[in-house]
């Protein structure tokens, strides 16, 4: 069976009194990620991993931040679109492993809900979705709480 790996990365600025959506879940925090969409850095990294695995360009190619159609959109909808693109090219998603890097708040309590949202949007079993988190040990822009970063890898298999 043919399999391929994909990698995704994303970063967004954190702004005071802004909604904070990660993995489709609303995070209770005084600041949130800023972007053209809902700025869900985790789902964006996952989308880019999926698109990368299938050699389908990247998230900005399919959903340009110059297009009002994507303004404020839930990134879970973008994930659903990426899954359609993947299937149209004859591939199926096998698993996701993702890493969030942010200083605060603690993300661990939100992870089961994030996995459920991503499972709904991707069709993956929650058992095939891994989400982890780390701080940046107070260093750099993440450590200063100016931004949030996500990395993701995925595996796809030929249908
Ligand atoms: N935003 C975060 C960061 C970390 N975690 C959890 O805490 C553990 C320890 O993180 P360190 O960066 O201090 O090593 C980490 O393994 C995560 O389980 C978190 O939930 N949210
Ligand atoms: C998701 C998109 C949608 O317009 O906008 P942003 O929320 O700014 O996010 P980014 O990670 O910069 O990816 C670009 C766009 O595809």
Write a short abstract of this structure:
The chain is α+β, with helices and mostly antiparallel strands.
Outline: globular
Helicity level, as a percent range? 25-40%
Q: For the largest beta sheet, what order do the strands appear in spatially?
A: 4-1-7-5-6
- What ions, cofactors and ligands are bound? ligand L45E5XJ5, 2C-methyl-D-erythritol 2,4-cyclodiphosphate
Kindly report the average pLDDT value: 98
Give the ordered list of helices and strands: EEEEHHHEHEHE
Site (Transition state stabilizer): 36, 135
Binding site for a divalent metal cation: 10, 12, 44
Organism: Sphingobacterium sp. (strain 21)
Pathway: Isoprenoid biosynthesis; isopentenyl diphosphate biosynthesis via DXP pathway; isopentenyl diphosphate from 1-deoxy-D-xylulose 5-phosphate: step 4/6
Molecular structure report:
Keywords: Isoprene biosynthesis, Lyase, Metal-binding. Belongs to the IspF family. The chain has a single domain, classed as 60s Ribosomal Protein L30, Chain: A (2-Layer Sandwich). The strands form 2 sheets. A 5-stranded mixed β-sheet has the order 4-1-7-5-6. Strands 2-3 form a two-stranded antiparallel sheet. Helix 1 packs parallel to helix 3 (75-88) and helix 3 (75-88) crosses helix 4 (111-122). The protein starts with a strand and ends with a strand. It contains 5 helices and 7 strands, in the order E-E-E-E-H-H-H-E-H-E-H-E. It has 159 residues and is of the alpha+beta class. The longest helix is centred in the middle third of the chain and has 14 residues, at 75-88. It binds the ligand Nc1ccn([C@@H]2O[C@H](COP(=O)(O)O)[C@@H](O)[C@H]2O)c(=O)n1 and 2C-methyl-D-erythritol 2,4-cyclodiphosphate. 2C-methyl-D-erythritol 2,4-cyclodiphosphate binds at residues 10, 35-37, 39, 44, 59-60, 63-65, 70. The site of 2C-methyl-D-erythritol 2,4-cyclodiphosphate has 12 residues, from helix 2.
């Amino acid at each position: 069976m043919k399999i391929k790996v994909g990698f995704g990365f994303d970063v967004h600025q954190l702004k005071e009194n802004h909604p904070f959506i990660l993995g489709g879940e609303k995070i209770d925090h005084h600041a949130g990620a800023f972007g053209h969409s809902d700025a869900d850095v985790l789902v964006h990294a996952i989308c880019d991993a999926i698109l990368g695995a299938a050699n389908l360009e990247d998230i900005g190619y399919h959903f340009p931040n110059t297009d009002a159609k994507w303004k404020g959109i839930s990134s879970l909808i973008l994930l659903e679109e990426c899954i359609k693109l993947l299937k149209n090219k004859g591939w199926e998603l096998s698993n996701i492993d993702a890493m969030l890097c942010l200083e605060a708040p603690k993300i661990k309590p939100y992870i089961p809900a994030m996995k459920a949202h991503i499972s709904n949007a991707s069709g993956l079993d929650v058992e095939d979705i891994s989400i982890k988190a780390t701080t940046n040990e107070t260093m750099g822009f993440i450590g200063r709480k100016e931004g949030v970063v996500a990395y993701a890898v995925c595996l796809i298999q030929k249908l």
